[in-house]
Input
Amino acid sequence: MKTDLLFDFTVDKTAKTVNITREFDAELSLVWDAYTKPEILDQWWAPRPWTSKTKFMNFEVGGRRFYAMVSPEGQEHWSIQRYTSISPKTNFKMFNAFADKDENPELPGSDWDLNFSEYNGRTKVSITIYNESLERMEKMIEMGFKEGTAMNMKNLEELLASLSQRK
Output
């Protein structure tokens, strides 16, 4: 396992943004699939021991993903992601908001801008998350967003290693 892969997480309270950069030792197309296909997303998009459960996902501009993070005790925390822009294998943008189990968003939410690039067999994912409110961003960080994101990225790194071996 590579140990020199970049992981950077910075918070800019003035701009109400979180910037995340992570490298993966995998081809861009595989990393893109991991972010855009529900059957792969559900294998890594939750900090363990939680799991991710996608109720539906329509990856197209205007489409949505409705999913829950599920605790080992069965507690569910729902979110809605609405895709606002897609440039295949280089970028997609989405609006993300917590929701109730009936798909009603709990606003405010955040705008995510995800960029993908590959160099020498490594894929870099750069994510900018703009929050509509500073209070929401601070609450997410207090709830462990940085630690949860680091765990998710580790999950993805392990999954990509496994998927790369199957090719």
Observations:
- The mean pLDDT is 94.
- The radius of gyration is 15 Å.
- Strands lie at 7-12, 17-24, 51-57, 64-70, 76-87, 91-99, 105-119, 122-131.
- Residues 145-166 form the longest helix (22 residues).
